[in-house]
């Protein structure tokens, strides 16, 4: 399979735009790969899309560098003393750390299924785009948004981490799953969105590292991987800034019409071709 530099640029833009918006980056990448004539269930294509996510993760690390440094200090203070374990930063960081474990376990146990033709199919993407939209609407309707970052608990982290596992199905959206879970738990929208970003760091870093050898094999090569990752970083950084500003005063239901329309188009095209 041949994946050129133009393909890498296009996929990098799609990854950067959609990784953190609740519209499903994997779903969009799968659709785009199909439009580019790539085999969506080809192992090297799957590996490539996983690796270029590292550009989006780098964007998170830089955008939230001060917060991450603060959380790291709070975490190590909690490791050292009982007093340190009473701080908000300790609890929030521990919630993110423990919340990252479920997707790691599920991802490893069901790696072949996740990379297989059933979940990587456009039919799955279309159905998931529409189906999870209903969950997003429900989450906003039931949201109380009564708790902020200082009130996030370890239980919240684990439950949101479990919701993140659902996003292994292309079309669901990792951010859509985690933000919806946070809203259903009574967490305010901005805090739920920030937590979604932080949960992405270990999840996507591990996925990219695991798939790097496959992405760099002879069928893809280093150049497309580098180009796709750099483009993903630049676009994702702008996407992060946009989403944080957007959710401060807007519901994630705003993304639902687009999700439903895209899902309907995908299923319609598949039904008549």
Count of folded domains: 1
Question: Quick check: average pLDDT?
Answer: 90
Beta strand %:
under 5%
SSE order in H/E notation? HHHHHHHHHHHHHH
The largest sheet, given as strand count, sense and whether it forms a barrel, is: none
Our Rg estimate from Cα atoms comes to: 18 Å
Helix content: over 70%
Count of runs of 4 or more consecutive helical residues? 14
Number of strands: 0
Structural class: mainly alpha
Shape: globular
Topology:
Blueprint: H1 5-18, H2 25-35, H3 43-51, H4 53-63, H5 65-80, H6 88-99, H7 101-109, H8 111-115, H9 122-142, H10 154-166, H11 174-184, H12 189-215, H13 222-247, H14 256-271
Report on this model:
- The structure is a single chain.
- This protein has 14 helices and no strands.
- By secondary structure, it is mainly α.
- 48% of the residues are buried.
- The two termini are 24 Å apart.
- The mean pLDDT is 90.
- Helix 11 packs antiparallel against helix 12.
- The protein has one domain.
List keywords for this structure.
single chain, mainly alpha, 14 helices, 0% strand
